[in-house]
Structure formats: structure tokens, C-alpha cells
Design brief:
This protein has 13 helices and 7 strands. It has 335 residues and is α+β, with helices and mostly antiparallel strands. Strands 3-2-1-4-7-6-5 form a 7-stranded mixed sheet, with helices on both faces. It is globular, with a radius of gyration of 22 Å. The model has no long low-confidence stretch (mean pLDDT 90).
Length: 335
């Protein structure tokens, strides 16, 4: 994990918010940290409103923005005082939370604040960074992930069990922070979700994120779980154009609209695809449940698109009754 902080570039930033943009983009450049544009960042500032009153404002990544390309207007200003009050409630439904967040935004036309806005607010540090680092998830997604995390980080991080992002996660983190936060704590691991770092400056929070993820990478290397063995030489690849065209057609029919299909011959990708265990290891689920926002629970292996669609509908029917609110199985995006 490379630290990309450049003092010369940082010196061009004229405010804490611009520094927040700068380090957010540094995180966004690395898709091993923010796959699918995930993750979010924030900074707490004090500003005067139109009547001259000073307010504590949380600038948090707005929904729909990618950290790699985010700009100043991609951060949504939300009043801190109300956010901290919300964190003390016993219950708050998702629709209520969305409404409360929107009602506290101070700039008309700003994007909707991140679903993890309350969580950013309760962390008592000026800058907060959050990623879904692959290396960290590879460790937390094991049967003994929590013990491994504690072995790697000791008291440097607070460890929180998985809870779907939203109010319940913020409340659970608030309780852990109140009970466990020490002066030596500079991170928080959300099991099967991701990792937070925080600090007094943009550089400090960013550098701590890089350091925390690097520890996870070193742990994987130490345990022989880092390098993917290259595939055996199987000779030149055969003609796949007709097969790709048929697959694209079948996926388009299942999705209900035309789709594009791309292929890759990257050595790392071939090593995975040609593994004798590809069917087993590919069906273990995503690195974090939050990645389901961008894909389905399991990837399609092979070209049996119709069977895959049926299996997904059956999976949905089994699990939809367990959801806290009604869920609808779309006839689209089944692969």
C-alpha cells in the first residue's frame, strides 16, 4: 500500500474542505480500497450562517459521487448538532433518517448525504476516512476474523460486528466509541464491511488509513495469502467471439435490456478463472455485503444464464421474508 501524499500538491489546497477533496481522491485512485467507487470521507468545520451565527458543520461525501473524481460540491454540508442528537435515539427508521439528514443540509441542491453520515458525525475527530479495503476484508471474512483483526491491530482500532449501514450501525458504533475510544485509538474496523481512520488533519487521517491497510497486507503476505499463482501455460487462447456473442445475448434477455460485455486476459484474472477451484471459491459471496449494491450475491460461472436467473429468484424468495422491510425482486439485473 503506497502513501500518495504529496506536500507540494497539498500546499495548493486553500481550506480544510479542499484538503478533504485532495486526500479523498488519493484514496479513490486505488480500487483495492474503494471498489465500485465505495467508501466515504468527511471533515468537520465551523462556519457562519447567513445571520452571522457560527455552526459546526459536517461536510460528508454525497451519494452518487466517486472518491476518485469528487469535487468540493460533492461534499454535503450537514449541521452537526442535530446529527449528534439523532445518534442518541433508540430507534430511527431508514425513511426517517433520510428525511432528518435532508432537513439539516445547509446548501440547496447539495447531493443526498451518505447513509453513514451519523456515523461520521459521532467520531470525535476532524477528518474521517472510510474504505472497503480488500486486504482487510480478506481477513475479517474468515471464521476467526475478529481474533485476527485484534492480533493485527491490538488497541489501535475499535472492532464492531457487522450491521447493515444506516442508523443501527451508527448507534452501535456510538456505543463502542463511548466505551472503548482511547487516545491511542486511530481506527475502527467494521467486520465484513470495511475500515475507518481518523485524525486532526487530512494528512494524518489519510496516512493512518494507508498504515492500517498496509498492516493487513503484511499479515496476508506473512500467512501466504497474498500472491495469486500464475496459470499454467495452456497455449494460445481459442476463438471466443461467437461464445461471447451468445453469452451477451442471453444476459440481455435475462436482464430485459441490451448489455455490453467485456473480456480480460490479465494474468491475475486468468489465474483466477483457470483455477481448478474456481467454482468453489467464486461462490463464497462478495467481499462485503455492501458490494451487493453493485452486483449480485454470487457471480455466474459458465454460460447457463437461465438457470442462474432461476436460482437467484429462489434465493430471493427464501430470504425476502427475513428482511426488516418489504423487498421486491426486480426482473432485471439478474446477472
Amino acid at each position: 500500500m503506497k502513501n500518495l501524499w504529496d506536500p507540494a500538491d497539498a500546499a495548493k489546497c486553500r481550506s480544510d474542505l479542499e484538503l478533504r477533496v485532495y486526500t479523498s481522491r488519493l484514496l479513490g485512485r486505488d480500487d483495492t480500497l474503494v471498489l465500485h467507487g465505495g467508501g466515504n470521507t468527511s471533515v468537520k468545520v465551523r462556519e457562519k450562517n447567513v445571520v452571522g451565527e457560527e455552526e459546526d458543520i459536517l461536510y460528508v461525501k454525497g451519494s452518487g459521487w466517486d472518491l476518485e473524481t469528487i469535487e468540493v460540491n460533492g461534499f454535503t454540508p450537514v449541521r452537526m448538532a442535530h446529527l449528534l442528537k439523532l445518534a442518541t435515539l433508540e430507534n430511527l427508521s431508514d425513511p426517517e433518517m433520510v428525511n432528518e439528514l435532508a432537513a439539516q443540509v445547509t446548501r440547496a441542491g447539495a447531493p443526498a448525504p451518505s447513509v453513514e453520515t451519523i456515523l461520521h458525525a459521532i467520531i470525535p475527530h476532524k477528518f474521517v476516512d472510510h474504505t472497503h479495503a480488500d486486504a482487510l476484508l480478506a481477513i475479517t471474512n474468515t471464521d476467526d476474523g475478529e481474533s485476527r483483526v485484534r492480533e493485527i491491530y491490538g488497541g489501535a482500532v475499535i472492532v464492531v460486528p457487522y450491521v447493515m449501514p444506516g442508523f443501527e450501525l451508527a448507534r452501535g458504533c456510538a456505543q463502542r466509541i463511548e466505551a472503548e475510544l482511547k487516545r491511542s485509538t486511530f481506527g475502527m474496523v467494521l467486520l465484513k464491511h470495511g475500515i475507518f481512520s481518523f485524525g486532526a488533519t487530512a494528512e494524518e487521517s489519510y496516512t493512518r488509513m494507508i498504515s492500517l491497510v498496509e498492516r493487513a497486507e503484511n499479515y496476508l503476505k506473512k500467512h501466504g495469502a497474498w500472491e495469486v499463482r500464475p496459470p499454467n501455460d495452456t497455449g494460445p487462447m481459442g476463438r471466443i467471439g461467437p461464445m461471447v456473442a451468445e453469452l451477451r445475448r442471453d444476459v440481455s434477455r435475462s436482464a430485459g435490456y441490451p448489455v455490453l460485455l467485456s473480456t480480460s486476459t490479465h494474468p491475475k484474472h486468468l489465474a483466477f478463472a483457470r483455477s481448478a477451484k474456481v467454482r468453489e471459491i467464486s461462490q463464497r459471496g462478495p467481499a462485503t455485503p455492501d458490494h451487493i449494491l453493485r452486483t449480485k450475491r454470487l457471480p455466474l460461472v459458465g454460460r447457463a444464464v437461465a438457470e442462474y436467473s432461476v436460482a437467484y429468484r429462489e434465493y430471493f424468495a427464501r430470504n425476502a421474508p427475513l428482511a426488516k422491510k418489504p423487498r421486491r425482486c426486480s426482473t432485471r439485473r439478474l446477472v
